[in-house]
Amino acid sequence: VSPRRHPTMAWRVPTRRTDTCGRLASDACGRNEARAQRRRPALRKGRAKEMRKHVSSDRKQGVSKLACCAVSARESASASALDVLQWQEVSVAVSRHASTAAGARKVASTSPTSSREEARARGVETVHGQRLWRGSSELLRLEEARTMDCTSSLRRLRMRQALQASGIAAVATVLATAARARRVVGAMANRGVRLGALAEPLVGFATRDGLVARIYAAIDVADGDHVRDVSRPELRRARERKRIAQEKRRKALLDAAKRGGRPAVVQGRACLAIRDGSSGDGLVLGRSEDGKEVYVEPRSMVQYNEIMAQTERDVVKQERAVCLELSRELLEVVEDVDKALQAVVWLDAVLARVKYGIHVDGSTPSSPEDANQGLRMCLQQLRNPLLINGLSAGGPLKKSKSKDDGEEGQGPVPIDVTIRNGVRGVLITGPNTGGKTAALKSIGLAILMAKAGIPIPAQEPLLVPWFDHVFADIGDEQSLDSSLSTFSGHVSRIQSIANACTSDSLVLLDELGTGTDPKDGAALGAAIMHSFANDGPGGASLSIANTHHSELKALKYSDDRFENVCVEFDEEKLAPTFQLLWGIPGRSNAIHIAERLGLDQDILARAKELLGTHRVEVNELIVQLEEARLRTRASTAEAHALMKEADKLHENLQEAKHAVEKHKTEAYVAAARNVLAEIAVAKGQIQSQRKKRGTAPPRSKQMASPESSPSTDIAKADPSFVPAVGDMVSVHQLGNKAAKVVSISEKKQEATVDVGGLKMTVKLRDITGPAQASQGTTGTSRGHKRTMTGGR
Asked: Which of 518, 346, 529 has its CA nearest to residue 423?
C-alpha cells in the first residue's frame, strides 16, 4: 500500500524467503532488497512530509476548536450578564414606544452589539432620529403600517398564493408608509437637516406609488378592507343583483310570516321561527338555544334563498378576481415590498429609542476620545432605568426596604459616576441597603444602552468608553443541587468571567470576597482585582466591585490604577442617601450610630480604645473629606442653578427680541393698510365728486384741463418748493397725505419719505410743502366745490 495513500501506515521491507528454486528466489529477494534500500530514504522523506501536514492540520483544527470554545464561553458569560442586569426589562420598556407590532418585536429582541462600528452606527441613528422626530413627528404616521399582516402576506406571496383583501390592504399601508417616510426625510434633508443615517435605508427600493393608488382605489383600506364596487364592473352588477334578490326575499319572508311565525335567518337562509309543536310546511333548519322554537324554511322561500345564495357566490367570485389581479401585481414587486417592510420596521425601532429617551429625559453619550476631557467615564445624574420603568408601568414607587434597592421616596435617586483616565479598578464600599448593588446595575445598564443606541437616563455631557462585553457577578449563586455555597458560587462565576473577558471588557462584581473568613476574603478580593487590572489573559479594561472588606480600600494608595468610592450615610437620619462619593473610602458608622442612639460613654470609649487610635483618626479624616465633598456638591448645585437661570433669562431675552421684531413688522403692515385705506377713501371722494358734476369728461381731457378735474388741485405742485431732510411734506399720490422726508436724491429727482412708519420713494414733483400738506383732503374738497360753483 502506498504511504501517500495511507501516511500513518508503517512501511515494511520485504523479508528474504526460500522455495524449491533457492538460487532464483535468493537472487530475486536480493534484487528486491537492493531496490528497497534505494527507495527507503525517499519514502521516509515523503512520509515525514505527509505526517507534518497532518500534524499541522490537526493543530489548526485544535486551535479552531479552542477558539470556538472561547467564543462560546464568552457568549454564555455575556448572556448570563444580560440576565443578571435584567436587560430584557429595559428592552421591553423601550418597545412600548414603538408604533407598529413588528417594530415593538424588533426592539424587544434587540441585544447590545459587540461590534464597535455597529454601536457607533446605532448611536448616529438615534441622533438623526431625534432630529427627525423634532422636525416632523406628526407627518410620519408609522402606526398606519400593518407590519404583522404584511409579514404574513409576504409569506403567502412567496408561496404563490392569492391574498385576501385585508392582506392586500396591509401591503399597501406598508408601501404608503415607506413612501411617506422617504418624502419626510427628503424634505428635511433639503432644509439642511443632516439625516444621512436615516435616508440611506429608505432609498434602496421602489415604493410603487401607482400600484398603491390602484389598491386604495379598489379596496377601502380605512373602513373594513372591503372591495369597492368601482374596482370591477362585474362586481358592481353582481352586488346590484344581490341587493335586488335580498329585497325580494325580505318581502316574501314578511308575506310568509303573516300566516304565523317570526322572520329569522339561519345559516344564511331566510326562515320562520315557530313554536315547537306547531304545524309548519317546510324544511326544519334547527332549533333555538332554549328549544322552544323551531326554524322552518317554508317551501315558498326555497327559490328566493337559492337565488340569494347564487348572487352571494357571484359577488365572492368577483371579489376574488379583484384580489387575484392585485396579488399578481404584488408578486412581481415582492422584493420591493419586503425591503419597504424592513425599512418601516427599522425606522420604527429607531424612533422607539428616541421616544423612550424623551420619556426618561435621557441623553445620547459621546466617546471620551471625542471629548478629550481627561475622563474615562462620566455619567452625571444617572438614574436606574429599571426603577424608571417601574414608575412608568405601575405608578409611583414606594420606598422599599429590600437590599440595595437604591430608592428614596418616589423614583430612583440619581448618582454621579466619574472615572478618570488610567483607572482599571473601582471599589465601592459602604453599609448594607446603601445602594451599592443598584449602582453596579445602573452602570452596567448604562453601558449596555449605549451599545444598543438607547439614550441613557442621565444629564449631558455623557462620556461612555467602548466595552466589547459586559460581564457581571451579581446575586447569590448558591445551589443545593450543585453543592455550591455562596462563596463557591461567586468563585465559579468569577472564574468563568476571567476565562471569557478581553482587554476591552467591563467586569462588575457584587459582594467581592464575601461568604468566607474576612481576612481570606479580603486577600482573595485584592488578588482578583489585581488580576482584572493587569494586561494579558484574564485582564479587563475596567472592573467595578463593591465590598465590605475595609482592607481593599488600601489598594488605591499602593496602585494608581484603583479608585475608591463610598455610599453616603446620613448620620442624623441614620439612613443612607444612596449618593456616591468618589475618591473617598468608606468608613465604619457603627460607633457614631451607637453614640447617637445614646449608648453608654464608657462602652464607646472602650470600643474606640480597642479599635485603635489610628483607625479613629482615619475615620475622622474620612468625615472631614465627606463634609468637604458635601460643600463642593452644594457649590456645584448652586452653580448649575445659576447657569439654568442664566439660560432661562437668555431665552426670555431672545423671545422678547423676537416679539419686538414681530411687533415692528405688524406695525409696518398696519401702517401700509392704513395708507391703502386712505387712498381708497380719497378715490371714493373723487368719484363721488365726479358723480355730483354729472357726466365725467374723458380721462385725457381731465388730465389736460386743470379746471375739469377735482384731482388737479391735488396734483398741482409749487415748482419753486425744494424740500429738505426732516421737512413735513404732502404726497400727491396718497391724497395729500402728510409725510416726513428721510433722504433726497437730486440726481434722480427722488425723495424717500416716511408715511405713518412706512417708507416709500416718490418723485420730487409729486410732493408739496407743509402749507399744502396741512390742508389735506379738506382743502381739496373745498377747492373742488369752488370749481363747481365757478362753473355755474
From this structure: 529
Length of the chain: 792
Provide φ and ψ at 556, rounded to 5°. Answer: -60, -35
Picking from 287, 293, 254, the residue whose alpha carbon sits closest to that of residue 274 is 293
Report d(CA 266, CA 360) in Å as an integer.
56
Residue at 539: amino acid letter = G
Return the half-sphere exposure (C-beta side, CA atoms, 13 A cut-off) of residue 252. 20
Dump the DSSP string for 640-707: HHHHHHHHHHHHHHHHHHHHHHHHHHHHHHHHHHHHHHHHHHHHHHHHHHHHHHSSPPPHHHHHH-ST
> Contact at 8 Å (CB) between 718 and 768?
yes
Those residues with Cβ within 8 angstroms of residue 264's Cβ, 6 or more apart along the chain or in another chain: 270, 271, 272, 273, 295
Q: For residue 689, what are the contacts with CB-CB under 8 A and spacing of at least 6?
A: 710, 781, 784
The residues near 491 (Cβ < 8 Å, ≥ 6 apart) are: none
Task: Give the mean model confidence (pLDDT) for residues 360-370.
Answer: 80
In this structure, what DSSP letter does residue 781 have?
A: H
Q: Is the separation of the CB atoms in 489 and 419 below 8 Å?
A: no
Helix (H, G, I), strand (E, B) or coil at 101: helix
What residue type is 531 in one-letter code? S
Strand partners, 565: 428, 582
C-alpha cell at 580: 456616591
Mean pLDDT within 27-37: 56
Q: At what angle do helices 334-359 and 101-108 cross, to 10 degrees?
A: 70
Condensed to tens digits (0 to 9), the pLDDT of residues 72-129 reads: 777 888 888 899 999 999 999 999 999 999 999 999 998 999 899 999 999 999 999 9
